[in-house]
Amino acid sequence: MILQVAGVSKRFGGLQALLHVTLDLPEGRILGLIGPNGAGKTTLFNVINGVYPPEEGRIIFNGEDVTARKPYDLARRGLARTHQIVRPLNDLTVRENVMVGSCFGREDRGLAEAADIAQEVIAFVGLETWSEQLAGNLNVAQKKRLEMARALAARPYLLLLDEVLAGLNPSEISTMVESIQKIREQGVTIIMIEHVMHAVMNVSDRIIVLDYGQQIAEGTPQEIANDERVIEAYLGDPRLAARLMEQIDEEG
Amino acid sequence: MAILEIRNVSSGYGEVQILWGVTLALETSKLTSLVGGNGVGKTTLLRTIMGSLKPWEGSVWFEGQDVSQAAAYDKAEMGLILVPEGRQLFTDMTVAENLEMGATPKRARPHIKRNFERIYEMFPRLKERKHQKAGTLSGGEQQMLAVGRGIMAEPKVLMIDELSLGLAPVLVLQLFDVLRQLKTMGMTLLLVEQNVHMALVVSDYAFVLAQGRVELEGPSRVLAKNEHVRTAYLGL
Predict the structure, then answer these.
(1) First vs last Cα of chain B: how many Å apart?
(2) Average pLDDT, chain B
(3) Which of A51, A58, A208, B101 has its Cα between 20 and 30 A from that of B29?
(4) Contact across the interface for A238 and B197, Cβ inside 8 Å
(5) Do residues A93 and A73 share a domain?
(6) Helices in chain A by DSSP H: which ranges?
(7) How far apart, in whole angstroms, are the C-alpha atoms of residue A242 and residue B201?
(8) Into how many domains does chain A fold?
(9) B1 near A CB under 8 A
(10) DSSP assignment, residue B51?
(11) Which residues in chain B are closer than 8 Å to A199, comparing Cβ atoms?
(12) What is the pLDDT of residues A44-89, one digit of tens each?
């Protein structure tokens, strides 16, 4: 197992954002993490990569207990992530942004080597023509690719992708999905949070569904799409509709 | 006859396109629902209809007139009213003052007294609390107040974004009952609702959005039996 999340709970004041979340992720897989707005998906990422320590539970990464270790420490150990709201260093060039990922990543590269790695990763995500541009000048789709390039330059074992498809047009989505598949082929394990359902259902080996901070289902995409609790989480409680129907009937 | 028509509308924020050629129409005096998963563009569509966002392409027609470029306040004057998601009440004003704020369109002013009575009859809780500040109300009462403020505007078309979100079942049923009363009065309604089953029970016609496009549409009774509604949400 590259990652084990064991009984993780996280609370913000009165809000139980995560409750006893448990998952085992074997190497080389793509795990989709879905759920309605506010389900706790990004919070789970934040706990896994050390932004927040959990109140309960452990994070085991590569066989080592890394619970509450800091994000920079985890980056050194091979855990990289992207952010839902892209966070480029706007006043650096695309190349420099990606070099930052490499310098603070798993392989602890110096500047010269980081530049080589950046060049390779930039080519992989298709940003070559933009590599000397300031990151602030990129459009949204390009910023998403930059976000991914910076994470990849850290040479992670495990990559957390937070809504990399949001805001992309259909052709940009299919290019991005291809990139995700290629990253996996290179041996990187991936967890992706995604609302573009047809994409996450097609690319994931397994899916975990969170709702109000709890894991309500885990399985293959096919199993998930037919799971009663998942359907209810997305489409709403059918019993309430039945009561409404009765109410309408009573009134004639 | 359609009172509101959205023709091939594309729209979004900055350079992020959310809606991709959406076409839909609201029949006069009918309740239409708009459903779909997270981030598919429901609220963006309402904002584009209302005019707080302008369509990038396509047009919005209200009572046979192209209103694509009209400002939100002009649309409110015409009788196109939105009850926004998250209620957006004036929390430091009383219940009665919030309701009165709803009656700013000229066409609403002659009916202030009647509409106050109507709303207090529909929502006795609001009457009991009319001198209380809106910020001190419960979530359900705030939603009643938001809907009430919309009714005060004397709408021809009332659009409600996320009617039942986060509310207890009893309150949800009560709010849906009010929707049916409004329809009986001849109001045209557009309901954005996260509980698809509820939306399909209460509405006459429904549109299912997925990835910024209309994925399915039809009479609600028919859609309630359509397996593709689930696949539109879950992608498989």
Answers:
(1) 36
(2) 95
(3) B101
(4) yes
(5) no
(6) 41-48, 71-77, 94-103, 111-125, 140-152, 170-185, 197-203, 221-225, 228-235, 238-251
(7) 8
(8) 2
(9) no
(10) T
(11) 235
(12) 999 999 999 999 999 999 999 999 899 999 999 999 999 998 889 9
Rounded Cα distance, B151 and B103, in Å: 8
Show which of A114, A134, A155 is a domain's final residue: A155
Distance from CA of B172 to the nearest CA of A (A): 9
With contact defined as beta carbons under 8 Å apart, do B191 and B199 qualify? yes
Instruction: Kindly list the structural domains of chain B, giving each domain's residue range(s) and its CATH number in brackets, ordered by start.
Output: 2-79+156-234 (3.40.50.300), 89-154 (no CATH)
Same domain, A98 and A143: yes
Question: ipTM for the complex?
Answer: 0.85
Taking 70 as the threshold, does the pLDDT of residue A252 lie above it? Answer: no
- Answer yes or no: is A177 within a domain: no
The dihedral through the CA atoms of B166, B167, B168, B174 has a sign that is negative
A167 Cα to chain B: minimum distance (Å): 5
A196: which chain B residues are within 8 Å (Cβ-Cβ)? 211, 235
Q: Do A231 and B15 touch (CB under 8 A)?
A: no
Contact A240 B169 (CB under 8 A): yes
- Does residue B1 have a pLDDT over 90? no
Residue environment code for A188-223, b if the CB has 16+ CB neighbours within 10 A, otherwise e: bbbbbbbbbbbbbbebbebbbbbbbbbbbbbeebee
Interface touch B169/A139, C-beta < 8 Å: no
Long-range CB contacts (< 8 A, 24+ apart) of B131-138?
A: B131/B94, B131/B95, B131/B96, B132/B94, B132/B95, B133/B91, B133/B92, B133/B93, B133/B94, B133/B95, B134/B89, B134/B90, B134/B91, B134/B92, B134/B93, B134/B94, B134/B95, B134/B98, B135/B89, B135/B91, B135/B92, B137/B95
What is the DSSP-derived secondary structure letter of residue B52?
S
CATH of the domain at A51: 3.40.50.300
